[in-house]
Amino acid sequence: MPHRIPGERLIAFFSRRGNNYVNGTIVHLSRGNTEIIAEKLQHLTGGELFRLETVNPYPEDYRKTTEAARRELQQHIRPELKGKMPDMEQFRLIFLGFPNWWGTMPMAVQAFMERHDFSGKIIAPFCTHEGSGMGHSEHDIRMLCPGAEVLPGLAIRGGSVPGADGELTRRLHRLNLC
Ligand SMILES: Cc1cc2nc3c(=O)[nH]c(=O)nc-3n(C[C@H](O)[C@H](O)[C@H](O)COP(=O)(O)O)c2cc1C
Questions:
Q1: Regarding the domain with residue range 8-174, which homologous superfamily does it belong to in the CATH classification?
Q2: Tens digits of per-residue pLDDT, 105-149?
Q3: Domain map of the chain by residue range?
Q4: In terms of Cα–Cα distance, which of 50, 130, 58 is closest to 83?
Q5: Are 43 and 25 spatial neighbours (Cβ–Cβ below 8 Å)?
Q6: Could you tell me the pTM of the whole model?
Q7: Which residue, judged by its Cα, is nearest atom 7 of ligand 1?
Q8: Are the C-beta atoms of residues 39 and 50 closer than 8 Å to each other?
């Protein structure tokens, strides 16, 4: 019988509220897709939720956000993170959630990863997306955290977020995460 991976869980995520593409149409999201998945994970695992926020919020407008995100990616800009960071010492397993932005994680997530030492920890990445899945984010996470064990990512399409509970539960059991 497989055993649940021991240790405290952190669910660190970045998510943007506002206008976004879902199934080919721009819609207003009062709660971000990744935020909803993070909350479901919190409910299923009992982990601690931590929302990554930038000092300068991204525009509510979808297209302006894509432009800002592309500029950050191309110019290797790390946006300044807001607030107090979690005490990483106490966590063994980190669920790391983000929307797929231009094929990888947003630069705010990169900034978070560069700020902490993930050696000896287990990272379970998850993302929401509009067709690109995890993109090359898992590769990027491995490059940023060579001392961590990075589990296979879970990618959920934006339109499937409300009904994702079954898939989340199955995945958590398969990876012995709950
Ligand atoms: C700046 C930006 C870039 C995006 N790039 C991609 C992409 O490369 N591939 C993709 O499948 N979806 C892309 N999307 C769509 C988001 O990944 C998707 O809408 C996601 O569910 C949003 O999550 P959130 O509501 O938690 O922010 C992009 C969205 C934005 C705002």
A1: Flavodoxin domain (3.40.50.360)
A2: 999 999 999 999 999 999 999 999 999 999 999 999 999 999 999
A3: 8-174
A4: 50
A5: no
A6: 0.96
A7: 102
A8: no
